[in-house]
Design brief:
Layout: H1 10-21, E1 37-42, E2 52-57, E3 63-67, E4 70-74, E5 79-81, E6 95-100, E7 106-110, E8 113-117, E9 122-124, E10 132-138, E11 144-150, E12 153-160, E13 163-168, E14 177-182, E15 188-192, E16 195-200, E17 205-208, E18 217-221, E19 224-229, E20 232-237, E21 240-243, E22 255-260, E23 266-270, E24 275-279, E25 282-286, E26 297-302, E27 308-312, E28 315-320, E29 324-327, E30 339-342, E31 347-351, E32 354-359, E33 362-365, E34 378-381, E35 387-391, E36 394-399, E37 402-405, E38 414-419, E39 425-429, E40 433-437, E41 443-446, E42 454-458, E43 465-469, E44 474-478, E45 481-486, E46 497-502, E47 508-512, E48 515-520, E49 523-527, E50 538-543, E51 549-553, E52 556-560, H2 562-573, E53 584-586, E54 605-607, E55 613-617, E56 620-624, E57 638-645, E58 648-651, E59 656-658, E60 664-671, E61 681-687, E62 694-697, E63 701-705, E64 710-719, E65 725-736, H3 744-812, H4 817-844, H5 855-869, E66 875-881, H6 889-908, E67 914-921, E68 925-932, H7 939-944, H8 952-962, E69 966-972, E70 976-984, H9 985-988, H10 990-998
Parallel strand pairs: 59-65, 66-67
Antiparallel strand pairs: 1-28, 2-3, 3-4, 4-5, 6-7, 7-8, 8-9, 10-11, 11-12, 12-13, 14-15, 15-16, 16-17, 18-19, 19-20, 20-21, 22-23, 23-24, 24-25, 26-27, 27-28, 29-56, 30-31, 31-32, 32-33, 34-35, 35-36, 36-37, 38-39, 39-40, 40-41, 42-43, 43-44, 44-45, 46-47, 47-48, 48-49, 50-51, 51-52, 52-53, ...
Length: 999
């Protein structure tokens, strides 16, 4: 899972080389350990399972910690136990020594063997099986030296490539080799429990000494070896071991670990006195009482960023450089400072116990003749070099080493001093108002009315002084009158005015609760958090030697470059909306203690002759060197550590293929800057999803939900605690597999199916249109056929009868004229009837044939007409069975036509004597039967469906099919003919069924 930590890309190697090359952020050797930034991780808080026994930092920036329970990898925020690759394991979980070689390989010395990890595979070295590894050193020739002990004695081995050479193991090197060290001159030293050896170069020689520590060798200066013995420190001088006294202290100690940092300070771990720090000829201590995790110190380590790491029995500690150093009681500041003043002699500080002067990083009590114990006071240095003090003890000044008090001025809260261009000294007295002390000593009071704190500043251009009221508002006081006045209503910063300053060009600046207000030529502009300050509440401002401005706010100390402030001011002068300025902010991780409100006395900040900025705080006196802010200029290496998809972890290697339907995705990343990892900033972007960078702050995870299938590229960049960005950052390519319904082939099938469906719908619609057209044609053909039937059954039959009459007349004309005349008259009547019947047939094409819905009555009427036409020679019988029901008009007409054709054939062609008609209404069907006793139909005609050229039987069958009925014709020679029509009830009684259903 940690293979990505050892990537071999060129950028990582080059960057690692640069980071190892020099001291970018070393600790200031002039400071005590308590003045560095300190952080403790305690075992009882769950940091590790046990004490840390060894350190190493690999080129990727990770800190590796050896414990009794294995390896832990630490990025400054997360301590993650290291798990060997599958199928591999360490010789023993108890790790005693670690070394990160220059080629990036991590060497791991355990209680019973040696292993190496190159980021991909773990290798063990059989030559060291069952041997306890105590020390690992890589010399300048890249030879790896191993110090160990076996059952037979101490052992020193050199590993050069694949070759291993060992000395000892037979008692000649004592019972153990506990420490190895290569000094600044290239000399390799080896130490055992009872002797030391100068191992190389030159002939090997030994020195007496009792050492039982795993880090017992170091240097106090280049070439000066210091050794830790149970009885105290010693140094090696001309092949002798002599005591090494600690400067500035005579305490007895039992040292356990030694480390010389890159700035030359010596760090000493002890058994019971915590940590000692030797620097610039003095020694200071840092113990459990000061915040150290424990007083028993085991190992010391300096990382590539200059941090000092300390292990104790109870945890892990880090000391790092701060941009702002605090001077408190250990540095001689007797109590929290009330005001600070940069004088010609140095930094002067007023405390509750008197005045102190800063010299060489230490505060000393100021001895002045006649100086009362003023407590905290406001301070001021006039143009004559006199130091003025205003406190509860009164108002006075120091001159020529003596203090002189102004007897006529009572003590009280003296909030501020100012000296105008005419030499008048102005004093803001909270109870009495405004006091003016003329150059000749004359004193005048101006009662300002309301008792409140006031801040004063002289105006070098217009004369007089500016008065900032603690209740709000700013007034220009000249020659005893108010020349100008500004308040919140004029656009001035709201709330308390805590400092007033006037520049050489007459521009007025005021620190307020609502921001930094500026007045020039009557125009007011206020810089607040919306303009670039970390917050609105401003306590004071000061200009450094480079003309940059430092603004102390309730949430940090902001530095504004001169160009930024000039651009902002120019926009304000032009009446334009000023753009947001760029600031460098120092806050608590940088050592700056910010408060919302400082004490009454001032000044609160001063610039000393060496350019350093001094300011008061709750913890003492703080100092910032603008020329050396101890900024971390090393861009942090950035790594993607892993992916967790739906709670399942995946290794962070490019080409990771995640399963389909990933809902919750977490990408873990980090950057290995160990200075102030809690202040690091991250930005990330998922190409293929995010349009722009996401600002993650110091969060080290990116979260995504419901990613679509596809290929993605995750990018993350980071900035260290000083805002130095690694713009290249780290990348990780991965993909989300599609579910089957998200694949291209499934989508293609869906598209094909949709196309096929559309095609089927199109074809169905075409067929529907064709069917409708065909039905229309069929309807037209059926209508024509119907017309043919109607004409056949009416008009043609009528004219056929007329034709027969004409034939009869033709036969009668020559012989029987009177009878022919009578027949002709009858024929004319029949022709008229045929015409009427034809007209009725045409009318029947548009309406029902029968005028009533009584089918039996219609058939009876038609049969009577036929019988009358035939002379009444045929006997007609009519029978109706069942209850008559209303019939569908079309069905009724078709049944009537079929029955009429059957009756007509029986009357005219059958030669029948009796014709019977039967109608049967039942639940299942309607039956109509016509039976006669005539000559019958010839078999060939019956089988052919009718005579050729005649439409009687054909028409009857077609009508039966149209109404869904079945027509049956039975006939035999001289036995008559029977025609039966059966129509389903659903067709015949449709209207009746709907009527009944509706009822």
């Amino acid at each position: 899972m940690f293979a990505s930590s050892f990537r071999s890309e060129a950028l990582t190697r080059v960057l690692a080389g640069l980071l190892w090359a020099g001291s970018a952020l070393a600790l200031d050797p002039s400071l005590d350990a308590s003045q560095y930034g300190h952080t403790a991780w305690r075992t009882r808080d769950g940091f590790a399972n046990g004490p840390v026994l060894a350190f190493a930092q690999t080129p990727d920036g990770y800190l590796w910690l050896g414990t009794e329970f294995g390896l832990v990898r630490f990025d400054g925020v997360r301590a993650i136990p290291w798990v060997p690759p599958r199928g591999a394991r360490l010789p023993h979980d108890h790790v005693r020594a670690l070394l990160a070689a220059r080629d990036g390989v991590l060497w791991i010395g355990t209680l019973s063997g040696l292993a190496s990890w190159d980021g991909r595979s773990l290798a063990t070295h059989p030559a060291f099986d069952d041997r306890s590894i105590n020390a690992l050193v890589e010399d300048r020739d890249r030879t790896l030296w191993v110090g160990a002990h076996t059952l037979k004695g101490g052992l020193v081995c050199a590993i050069r490539g694949a070759a291993t050479e060992c000395d000892g193991g037979d008692g000649t090197l004592g019972n153990a080799i506990t420490s190895l060290y290569e000094d600044s001159k290239g000399v390799l030293w080896a130490a055992g429990r009872d002797r030391m050896w100068r191992w190389k170069p030159g002939p090997r020689n030994s020195l007496p000494g009792i050492l039982d520590s795993l880090q017992a060798l170091s240097e106090s200066a280049p070439g000066t070896m210091v050794v830790a013995r149970p009885a105290g420190l010693a140094r090696i001088a001309e092949d002798r071991v002599v005591p090494y006294p600690l400067p500035g202290t005579s305490i007895k100690l039992s040292p356990t670990a030694l480390l010389r940092d890159r700035e030359g300070a010596l760090w000493i771990g002890t058994r019971d006195r915590g940590l000692l720090h030797v620097h610039r000829g003095r020694t200071d201590a840092f113990t459990r009482a000061d915040g150290l995790s424990g007083d028993w110190v085991g190992r010391l380590f300096e990382d590539r960023e200059g941090n000092i790491w300390v292990t104790t029995l109870d945890g892990l500690d880090r000391f790092r450089a701060l941009a702002a150093a605090t001077h408190a009681k250990p540095q001689g500041v007797l109590a929290p400072a009330g005001s600070v003043l940069a004088t010609r002699d140095g930094i002067l500080v007023s405390t509750r116990f008197g005045l102190q002067l800063g010299r060489e990083g230490r505060m000393v009590q100021l001895d002045v003749r006649g100086l009362p114990k003023p407590g905290v006071a406001s301070l001021f240095e006039d143009r004559r070099g006199r130091i003025w003090l205003g406190s509860q003890s009164g108002v006075g000044y120091i001159e020529h080493g003596a203090y002189r008090s102004l007897e006529d001025v009572p003590g009280g809260y003296i909030d501020s001093f100012a000296e105008d261009r005419d030499g008048n000294l102005w004093v803001a007295h909270r109870e009495r108002g405004l006091l003016r002390i003329a150059p000749d000593g004359q004193i005048a009071w101006n009662d300002m009315g309301q008792r409140t704190r006031r801040r004063l500043a002289a105006d070098p251009v217009r004369g007089g002084i500016w008065i900032g009221d603690f209740l709000g508002g700013l007034t220009h006081f000249v020659d005893g009158r108010i020349a100008a006045s500004y308040s919140v209503r004029d656009g001035f910063g709201k709330g308390r005015i805590k400092q007033v300053s006037v520049a050489g060009d007459g521009t007025v600046w005021a620190a307020t609760d609502g921001g930094l207000s500026r007045i020039k030529d009557g125009r007011i502009a206020t810089l607040d958090k919306h303009g670039g300050l970390p917050c609105d509440n401003v306590n004071w401002m000061i200009e450094d030697a480079e003309h940059a401005w430092w603004i102390h706010t309730a949430c940090g100390l902001a530095r504004i470059a001169r160009g930024e402030l000039d651009n902002w001011s120019a926009a304000a002068d032009a009446g334009k909306a000023p753009r947001r300025i760029v600031t460098t902010v120092l806050d608590r991780p940088d050592g700056v203690q910010s408060v919302a409100f400082l004490g009454s006395y001032e000044p609160h900040a001063a610039r000393s002759g060496d350019g350093k900025l001094w300011f008061v705080s709750d913890g003492g006196l703080m100092v910032v060197d603008p020329r050396d802010l101890r900024l971390n200029k090393l861009p942090p290496p950035v790594y993607v550590e892993g992916i967790v998809a739906d709670r399942k972890p995946y290794e962070a290697s490019s080409g990771v293929r995640l399963p389909p339907q990933v809902r919750d995705l977490a990408i873990e990343y980090t950057a290995t800057s160990l200075v102030a990892p809690e202040k690091m900033q991250f930005k990330y972007r998922l190409e293929g999803r995010d349009r722009d960078w996401n600002d993650a702050g110091n969060r080290r995870q990116a979260f995504y939900t419901d990613l679509e299938p596809g290929d993605y590229r995750f990018r993350v960049i980071a900035a260290n605690n000083s805002g130095m960005w690694n713009e290249q950052g780290a990348t990780l390519e991965f993909s989300v597999a599609p579910a089957y319904w998200q694949t291209w082939w499934f989508r293609a099938l869906c598209i094909a199916a949709l196309v096929a469906l559309l095609w089927a719908l199109y074809r169905w619609r075409v067929r529907q249109i064709a069917r409708e057209f065909s039905m229309t044609l069929d309807a037209r053909v059926a209508e024509r056929t119907r017309i043919a039937r109607e004409l056949h059954d009416t008009l043609l039959q009528g004219f056929h009868g007329v034709l027969l009459r004409f034939q009869t007349v033709l036969e009668l004309l020559p012989h029987r004229a009177s009878e022919a005349k009578q027949t002709l008259a009858s024929t004319i009547e029949q022709a008229a009837a045929a015409i009427t019947e034809g007209r009725d047939a045409v009318q029947g094409l548009r309406a029902s044939t029968t005028e009533t819905n009584d089918l039996a009555e219609s058939i009876q009427t038609f049969a009577d007409e036929l019988a009358a036409e035939g002379g009444g020679e045929v006997e007609l019988g009519m029978e109706v069975l069942g209850v008559p029901r209303p019939l569908h008009p079309i069905v009724r007409d078709e049944i009537f036509r079929i029955a009429s054709e059957a009756l007509r054939n029986a009357f005219r062609h059958a030669g029948a004597r009796r014709i019977e008609v039967a109608l049967r209404y039942d639940e299942r069907r309607l039956r109509v039967g016509v039976r006669d006793d005539g000559r019958g139909i010839a078999p060939e005609v019956l089988s052919a469906g009718g005579r050729e050229g005649h439409f009687g039987l054909h028409g009857m069958r077609e009508r039966a099919r149209l109404i869904g009925g079945k027509l049956t014709v039975w006939s035999a020679a001289q036995a008559g003919t029977e025609v039966e029509l059966a129509v389903p009830a659903a067709n015949a009684y449709a209207v009746a069924a709907r009527v009944e259903s509706a009822a």
